[in-house]
Fold each of these.
Amino acid sequence: MLQSIPSKLDIMTSHERIKPYINRTPVLSSDKINELCGCEVFFKCENLQKIGAFKARGGLNAALSLDKSLIEKGLCTHSSGNHAQAVALAAKLLHVKAYIVMPSNAPKPKVNGVLSLGAELIFCEPTLEARENGVKKIIEKTGAVFIHPFDNYDVIAGQATASKELLEEQPDLDAILAPVGGGGLLSGTGLTAKYFSKKAKVYAGEPEGAADAVLSFKSGKVEKAPFINTVADGLLTNLSEKTLEIIRDTVRDILLVNDEEIMAALKLVFENLKIIIEPSCAVPLAALIKNKEVFKNQQVGIILSGGNVDLSKLTF
Amino acid sequence: MLQSIPSKLDIMTSHERIKPYINRTPVLSSDKINELCGCEVFFKCENLQKIGAFKARGGLNAALSLDKSLIEKGLCTHSSGNHAQAVALAAKLLHVKAYIVMPSNAPKPKVNGVLSLGAELIFCEPTLEARENGVKKIIEKTGAVFIHPFDNYDVIAGQATASKELLEEQPDLDAILAPVGGGGLLSGTGLTAKYFSKKAKVYAGEPEGAADAVLSFKSGKVEKAPFINTVADGLLTNLSEKTLEIIRDTVRDILLVNDEEIMAALKLVFENLKIIIEPSCAVPLAALIKNKEVFKNQQVGIILSGGNVDLSKLTF
């Protein structure tokens, strides 16, 4: 269990630890998207990861880093969906129980995903406070070990392996874009670029309707979003102390986009890459398209974070 | 230009010829689909191929096999969509003109795909006769070279490379399933299994609403479908003499499915593999699910043929 910011070796070790259990996801590209963006874009398809999201990496790494004796009473977490599935998957692989506190408005495919992995589901009000109280009660009752969705160095080291694989295939990237919610993926991506690339700068895309990270990035303190109203349901949480510190050190900028731009980017991915992504996952591409001049003629990597979308709610 | 049934060496040569221009598409799998099917299924994702379909392989192979002096007046073909895009792509790479005769009811994404590749588009009535007449007129007028969508040994050898790549990654497959329209992909898959696998048996899925191949397979003559009515718009054509001969020699069985089964399989792929496929592409998985007992506990490959679907027409 890591007690400080993951080192290069920590990320390499984490990668070896989770490799047997995760998909080596493909890297896709599209001539039409390249043309539209004015640069070469390489999409790391974590929507094609186990449980349909990069969160499998962090959840598995954190669970597998714990001593077996510690986890025999089970794992628990709170999450709007993808991290919940990651912890449920880890518990299943380790043959222990999983207790998941989920907001009552979590998307149906994510709820079904958790249930189908055999986890015990506890619904709560869709606030951070209710989620944290829910987890507290579970721990008192069961003795299960809590795995935080992002304020956890092992989770961060796990998420870092997505961009590590991308750089193994495309070592000459000038930039890497990731979405930012709690900052687990973004801080991991920042560390990976720092350790494994000579030149790649890391940028985040963030929804205007959950614009906490951009404020925290500037002030240096964990800030709340002025308001919450966005289709990107996976990016609603604030940063944590741990993720903010790494992001301030390793990320170049955080770029804001609105829901219309997010949905246009989502459509572009559906139509040209022929893959299914959730709205949160379209945020970095929307940010790239909005800031074309920054990335002109560059080689740009984008982490496509997840594909757990309620298809019945999408219209084109 | 091949004058007889492609040999093992012909398929290997074809693969090397087209490799620089095609995507090495990923092979995906899903624990949930495996569970549901009672076997291990490996999906070769040709929906993630250039132009969104396996047809890029055959079209490019046929065009690149022709002497440069032969094609300076351009390439032409008739197609409901994916082969049209393949020929348009080949013409673009070879810097010659492409003339495409398309039925007036071709799906919009396929029409747009052809136009965006710079081809000249000629619409015709949605009958085979109208398509063939359209091509005849083009050849008389322009001197362009016709590339048939499937009654062409170079096209067949190109399509064969999809299952060749699949077998390179999964050499122990017990069975491979492909959809059947004109039979280019199916005959290529049959040849590949014969040449490159010790045990893989090849099966086709065919829509009940375009059930010509199953009749031809039995009678040994090219038959027409009793009626045409299916969502699988890419599988409407009859076999040809060339494809039928190979299919009779190399394919184990042709399995019929109805539109409801096709759309259920399509939904399963969207939700679990997180990729976009067109209805024609869901036919082999529907056939597998309908005939589970045939494939029980086996390792099964499925060629996912294409992803060019009009998303505005899909509802879940």
Amino acid sequence: MMDVGVYRLPMAGPDDVSELAKLIDNGTIRAEEVCAIIAQTEGDGYARGYAAMNFELMLSERLGMSREEVSARIPMLMIGLTGGLMSPHYTVFTRREVDAKPTGEKRLALGIKITRVLKPEEYGTAVQARLVAEAVREAMKEAGIERVEDVCCVEVKCPNLTAARLEDARSRGKKCCRTNFAEAGSKSKGASALGVALGLGEVQDADVTDEAVCSNWALYSNVASTSAGNEQVACKVIVMGNSVNSVSKFKIGNGVMQDTLDIEGAREAFRKAGLRCEHDLPEEERQRIATMFINAGADAMGSIRGRRTTMKSDYLVGYQGIFAKAVINAIVGSLVGDTMILASAGYEHQGPLGANLVACIARAE
Amino acid sequence: MMDVGVYRLPMAGPDDVSELAKLIDNGTIRAEEVCAIIAQTEGDGYARGYAAMNFELMLSERLGMSREEVSARIPMLMIGLTGGLMSPHYTVFTRREVDAKPTGEKRLALGIKITRVLKPEEYGTAVQARLVAEAVREAMKEAGIERVEDVCCVEVKCPNLTAARLEDARSRGKKCCRTNFAEAGSKSKGASALGVALGLGEVQDADVTDEAVCSNWALYSNVASTSAGNEQVACKVIVMGNSVNSVSKFKIGNGVMQDTLDIEGAREAFRKAGLRCEHDLPEEERQRIATMFINAGADAMGSIRGRRTTMKSDYLVGYQGIFAKAVINAIVGSLVGDTMILASAGYEHQGPLGANLVACIARAE
Amino acid sequence: MMDVGVYRLPMAGPDDVSELAKLIDNGTIRAEEVCAIIAQTEGDGYARGYAAMNFELMLSERLGMSREEVSARIPMLMIGLTGGLMSPHYTVFTRREVDAKPTGEKRLALGIKITRVLKPEEYGTAVQARLVAEAVREAMKEAGIERVEDVCCVEVKCPNLTAARLEDARSRGKKCCRTNFAEAGSKSKGASALGVALGLGEVQDADVTDEAVCSNWALYSNVASTSAGNEQVACKVIVMGNSVNSVSKFKIGNGVMQDTLDIEGAREAFRKAGLRCEHDLPEEERQRIATMFINAGADAMGSIRGRRTTMKSDYLVGYQGIFAKAVINAIVGSLVGDTMILASAGYEHQGPLGANLVACIARAE
Amino acid sequence: MMDVGVYRLPMAGPDDVSELAKLIDNGTIRAEEVCAIIAQTEGDGYARGYAAMNFELMLSERLGMSREEVSARIPMLMIGLTGGLMSPHYTVFTRREVDAKPTGEKRLALGIKITRVLKPEEYGTAVQARLVAEAVREAMKEAGIERVEDVCCVEVKCPNLTAARLEDARSRGKKCCRTNFAEAGSKSKGASALGVALGLGEVQDADVTDEAVCSNWALYSNVASTSAGNEQVACKVIVMGNSVNSVSKFKIGNGVMQDTLDIEGAREAFRKAGLRCEHDLPEEERQRIATMFINAGADAMGSIRGRRTTMKSDYLVGYQGIFAKAVINAIVGSLVGDTMILASAGYEHQGPLGANLVACIARAE
């Protein structure tokens, strides 16, 4: 049987990995069992790399391997740019095989797969989507999750187009999907999300075409959260769900907030994670929450419930994603009394336009 | 008896006052009865002046008087800088004497007073606080509000220190409370808020000293929202509360959110405004809300419920106020299903540090 | 003969048009002769509208006509967003017919034309370019400028695509060049600049196609500066050059800085305007400068002379245009000892990519 | 005799130290001789730590010592936040004793000293200034610089106040100079600059008091550039000047630009560094420039030569320092045809208010 551990830890800055070091050094966590880290880092994009470097360095000492080996072994998803009440932190997942009896109910299970290295000209295309779809299916299998309905959250980190990569494609006579890096990054995230949708049967194979990426918004996954990074060369896929093959102390649930004010979508996630939640979440149920991941979508829309917002206007241009994350973090934070909730921005095929995808991991009773 | 009308209207930009023009032109609102306008404008600080100029110009045509006369007659509080889900809009208050029987219950009443012109060296001092306190008491009287407990919201617009005013004080051998304009503005807002507290008996007269302003945070008002502007030379005070002398169709309620996640404080405001609200606010009760004003305080704190935020860190420095407004707007917006809620940032003696003050005006049944 | 006056005036804020009012009121300027205003306003985009409104209002009183009539009569180009050493100000042009003898040399002449109203689907297309080209030729004629070599600066204000205009086009079954407003605005500016190039014979008619706009960067004008605004429905064209038919006290010169460090390009403008400038500009020559306009292009490039800049990187995204303006203003400012120089950002066919176009108006000797 | 080497190297990002690694690995630079690194990093404040970490890690491998030992051995001054034409890069200084004859002229010499660890309550006080003054004198001695007139540039990295340090002081019953971290950081930089001035005899000992720090602007150093960091616990002082005891191939010169447009101040630095520069700097002289450091001061002023700027206004608040650096980098860059010039912002006693301090290191002939 699989056993999955979940540790949500605060960080004092992008360079602070001391809480994890402490848990490893005092024996609470075995470094060999760390299988993924998902962090909400403050600061700009470079702070993501800074945080990853600190994790790699600390773990390379504990694991007795090089930084490169750590990087290849443990997927690290660093989500940068905080604002509002967002609280920098990271969630560490551990995984191990244990000799135990099934609990009789489905528990948190995790599968991790990395696609082959993509060529720059494949970024943002149906090729990328199909590679991700395959990785999702394999990760489900690895996790022992049998039904797609039991998958609650799929995190994907995929490559960004860079000047060097664009040049590489050109030198081989190939064309990339976009020459504008921001647009190309959006397409890469979109293709990854469509790949999740395809892997889980949320869309039809025939619909997943190059043209559909970041264009046919009727296609989407309700559990995908994707982000792109210059440092990535392949797509790293983490599938989270519940499985009878897991004896984890945790369960995961998910919900879709159809718009940013739709708190029933968050409550759906609480309930699916096993929390009692009629209206407000009682204090004892709040205590059971281990960690939460939200994919924010408010920046895709210029209005909400008929009210115009200034998400698309010219002041503070470029900060819409931070605001989208800050407001959903605050709203869901007000439901659980805690803002140490990871919020990632990205609307590309990650739920219907304007929706927020909520995943909640809670201690089983 | 006094009758007070409340109209919350959307604006397409700082220059859009068309909705009010329409209501005046079709006879819904009589221009002579417009007594105050409180707006949430998008854009930067200059957009506040732009919006005010548009209101003045439009009303000067309807009222047959000069822009200057309009400006002197109708206090206009323009709150700028929107973010997240905040929706630019304005609330128009009308007031008139009517020959009517008391309703037997307390209804929305409004009093407006403007202090004498302040000298620059008085900004941010106990002198300013006492002038505001006096204006608050007079405005209460004018509103026919008999008990301080019935005052739910006091909006104050006060002067900012400018280079010219600093120079003026210096030329007369006088010293201003600060030479840094941002700090001086903060002190002006703080003195105004202390003035409200003094006027309503929330603090003792002996405690209101020059030194206490922006220093003794144990002193505060639970209903004050103050903002400062370069264009102001005196303090404009709008007192809102409930009175038996009003036959308005509206009631007002207020509550204190002790921190930004404390949604019970918002529910207290709903209930005091006469809305039925056990847990979630039912759809029919939401429909009764006429307008809402929140004074946001999240930017005063670097953490919330033990979780560190990045409000005080070096990225996006200068935008904390916008984030404070955006997150409280989102949280309360999620309770009422609407983000057309005015949010003003300002922590200086406006509630305990980190608190948010909520006022809700709703149709009486 | 034509006489053209030039007045460069400081503004204390977007709402400050007092210097012009003073010059009109004391008889220095006759309001009827004001033919164009080009301003560098601080603050965000809304401050442009705010400034224009103040000009219109002040002039409507002096001219005894409505704001709308003023707006239709006098083109006002408000260039917003200042940074660094940029100093908010405006240049007022006056024009009148005088009974005078030719000076025997070419002097500053101004022609102003407005195209027909464009349909949204025409924005950013060859249709727009050809309308601008025609307006440029007519404005040259009006200015009495006989040779295209004598045209030194063409300022164009053109329409932006808005949600309402996009919807209008759609409702008539028409397609706009882009659905992203930022990209559509860029195309509108590009089409205008290509139009100037066409009107002045800098490009061939056959090259001006829909596809070429914002795509074939080998096509450009060396004297065009274009900006787009939501409030525009047609293209307003101001052609400035030198003509034997003018008896203005001023001359204009222009130069192309091939990159932002190419100060020889600025010196070329000084010399063409009649200033003595071997190396540094002597103090007495600096005093002869009446006003300057620069079209900045640094934001089009991610490097300069082999050195990588961070213009294209992810920090301060959205502010590249301000930085492009601030650095060229500073560099040229250091040559003339004055930073009250208008800088406008826009690389779309306005000079070769990365170039800065400099126009200098100086008192003739 | 001392030999000092200077290597200016580009960086592709805060994590790119490959150029230095290459020079070490191919034998151009001996790792043991690296004595200081001064970098201009892009990104926000965290990117400074990220860059330092990368340098430490790379050098720890080359030097066979721990990162901590590298950090203690080699002062690394990371100056963050780029804008405009600024080009991320770093300058590596090497130093070694050589058996050589004096050249007969003064050449580049370098002295490095670190003060004792300061207590938080000493930050921003005369105690800090005196410690820096002593370190400056010792570093001069170490560098073999005999006269204060031969000191051209003193870079100081000093500690910032943090929440933990403030708490530490409080727990011991001590008061820090400020509780606002930004203000405390400013005072720390100011005390360091006053310390340089004291060490070089630019100010009198009696004038250096706690009260004078960031208050008496008549006191300043014409060669100091100071910056503060949360990671510092002591003041690191790098003194650069010319000495007969050096046989370096380089000379250093400095100049004071009295305001940001005063290019004669930069030319003074060129000439003192041995470059021929009557008006424009000829191409062959430009080629001799090894590296340049500028301390920018434009953000201290709200106007320049009588022209109002928007440095102190409310748009883009918080970015004045970046603009100050961007504009001086551009202006001096236009003189040398290269923007790979380090610009640091800081007005606190670093030259008269509004001045820019320029240091230029050039190859001797």
Amino acid sequence: MSDYRFLKACWGEPVDRTPVWLMRQAGRYLPQYMAVRSKVSFLELCKTPELAAEVTIQPIDYLGADAAILFSDILTPVEPMGLKLDFAPGPVFESPVRTQADIDALRIPVMEEDVPYVLETIRILRREFEGRVPLIGFGGAPFTLACYMVEGKGSKDFAQIKRMMYSAPESYASLMEKITEMDRQYLNAQIAAGAQAIQIFDTWGGIVSPGDYEKYILPYTTKLIEGLNRTGVPIIHFVKGAGTMLDLVKRAGSDVVGLDWHIGLGKARNLLGTEVAVQGNLDPTILYAPPEHIEREVKRILDENDGRPGHIFNLGHGILPTVPPEHAKFMVECVQRLSAKG
Amino acid sequence: MSDYRFLKACWGEPVDRTPVWLMRQAGRYLPQYMAVRSKVSFLELCKTPELAAEVTIQPIDYLGADAAILFSDILTPVEPMGLKLDFAPGPVFESPVRTQADIDALRIPVMEEDVPYVLETIRILRREFEGRVPLIGFGGAPFTLACYMVEGKGSKDFAQIKRMMYSAPESYASLMEKITEMDRQYLNAQIAAGAQAIQIFDTWGGIVSPGDYEKYILPYTTKLIEGLNRTGVPIIHFVKGAGTMLDLVKRAGSDVVGLDWHIGLGKARNLLGTEVAVQGNLDPTILYAPPEHIEREVKRILDENDGRPGHIFNLGHGILPTVPPEHAKFMVECVQRLSAKG
């Protein structure tokens, strides 16, 4: 299908060396990103294809990463569902979803009309990257989107979504069904526009107990993944804080399971079995360390993988804004050098 | 030694029913706490034995919990090390610890002189609770205290402590040694004053990878626990976010391992073996749910324990300030009713 080592690794095929990219590799730690960002708001940046493409390309040029990921925000397709979005600086919805009437009022966007900039960015990037690196599209998992929509903003205790989940389970289910269908159409539109892999981010999927994950979250993520036009397009599923329930995450059916740094990669692979690939899992704060420490940690993770096919190197969460960019670049070089077949 | 079912369960002895208490059971969700708190600052409350004792007693009277925990703050003994502490509203140190000179300047407090109010609160409470409930003393684990001391406040990325850990490992080690010795003296002073069990809170112990936990955190917690005058006084060790590395947490040597809600209690007990007791692990947000849902979740956790001795029921983290107090009371009743031997 493809000679890109990133895609081969997603399929569990042998590669010449371990592919590597970084979650949030287009972002604030890069001065070249800040230069673009200083001229426009975050939302304008997401909605202007030329600029979104420009910042997507930056880390490929600078880091030499083996895959690019579309620059966007997981809440981009939620706004046209009928929720006005602001960043202050975190995402804020003016009128959060709290009642069945609020849920009924949500519409499923028409992707080519409502988020054309996302699809146009993908088209620009595919032309730009042809023969160079594959392009990953992405979206939030239904639960993580629901958290933002119901809480209205980031939360420490997630009281609102939990109240809905436990006290109004039918409303919760109808909201999750609607988001799942939106997400399915959104990610399929990205695939149609040219995304060569899809990463589903479940940033908040790990806030619940394993039992509640199985009951309230897994069915929707599973349905979403089943509904994607996946032929030739691997699906990466990353649930932050899920090291204690990787068996459940695996059941969602993705091709690749993203790992945070709270579980050893070797242990995680033993639990998951080799029929699923993994992506991860360097602690993002290791990039504060001196180069020799970074190299040691990269080596440890490669050693834990122990030559098994189906490993994409990444951080265990997004790169932090205060990390020195040259440390990120050095980390990428370490992966490429240390994993190269002799 | 003692007829208190809480202490028996800590030792893994059979009990008539599962003992239960709640982390942060003296706190903002209780109107009677807010009434006291409205008259004094948080620090004044911690430093006034009569008031600290009053709020410690409140949840025993209201909830009927099987153990009381001293009302205090984990940073109380850090201030007399030489760091001015404020709450705004989270804890803030004016001059965080960043250099070897900062570390060298820290002193080990003389507990009876520097934190007499903590020890006096314990003495008041022991008289008050005699024959009723046992009293748990507590402190922060060395790493969690170090995080606050180095970051100066709560943090999302823990950049400062990580920089010290990785770039100045000798400074990091000397800081941790000093905190561990302070902690040892502080907790032994609590035991001498009458604390009948000690809980060590490692709120931030789960932010690192298992490898880094083993290298940078575990040695100090182990040394602390080894240095306590534990005869007859069980040690509870709670590391938030440690479900993927309970084998390491167990090696620190406590009598009881505290569990957050991210791992099933049955799975955790299988991993830990029955020679160590466990405490936990209801998701604190379940207390937002209607009573029938709370009861179902309590039953599930008791079922997961499956009659094994050495289980103390608790939340998986502190009770949230916006929870209805009657839900907390109902949860306690459920544990007491559902676990009673027929």
